[in-house]
Fold this protein.
Amino acid sequence: MSLVYLNGEFIPPDQAKVSVFDRGFIFGDGVYEVIPVFGGRMFRLPHHLARLEASLAAIQLRNPHTVRQWNDIFTRLLANNGTADQSVYLQITRGVAARDHAFPPNISPTVFAYASPLNYPPAEQLAKGAAAITAADNRWQRCDIKSIALLANVLLRQQAIEQGAAEAVLVRDGLMTEGAASNIFIVSGDRVITPPKGPYILPGITRDLVVEIAHFHDIDCVEQPVPIGSLRSANEVWMTSSTKEILPITRIDGRPVGDGKQGPMHVRVFALYQQYKQAFIRGEVE
Ligand code: PDD
């Protein structure tokens, strides 16, 4: 792996060391971002940095870097990695201090970032789609913060894997929220629906772009609550994330979604999304 960034230094991964008293390690006291990179360009960087800013504000941590400094760090991490798809992971914790739940005064945050190759699902997998389970959303009430404390998400995703599925679609009070590590869309008739933003979902950057692209192309797309019954009767279900893009979910809890194959609305929206991405790589859109 190429160099990683840790607290101002670019160093080989095996030399990057963090104290055992780091509050990220002790409490999961930190936030993160995952930014996809296409053709050497960071996709929707301003959106990711705005969400980072919101996550930091929510946990009362000052952003340690300006937009320009972040840009410089990421650019240097990506410098020798060519044009293949990649992702940048970045994590900020509150820093190192003797263990005490309350914020310690005067500590500096720990800042870590690295780039790694990004492999999207191949065309065969898109056509086939993925399986999902439904599970009770037992996370906290601030799922809008991109927190590194992901134990509930980890357990939910693991539960899906152990049942032969790729994702857990979460349900709270009879309404679908999101996936363990993705946002969820359903298609009902000709209408594309995803739950509105709020404390129970992460405001996904891919989600927002899918909504934006759908609106731009006059596709009927709304942000409204999705009762579990609507999920069960949907013609199509998709999961979206920076690392999976838009992936059809073709089986839920062992039953087919629609006819159990990638649906026509997915084909259409996925193609529009890829067009947008190509225009971004060519520098025609930001
Ligand atoms: N996760 N919801 C949750 C709980 C997520 O963890 C993610 C992404 C998303 C989608 O957000 P975006 O489109 O901005 O990637 C929604 C990342 C990829 C991860 O944890 O690796």
Notes: DSSP finds eight helices and 15 strands in the chain. Residues 138 and 169 are 12 Å apart (CA to CA).
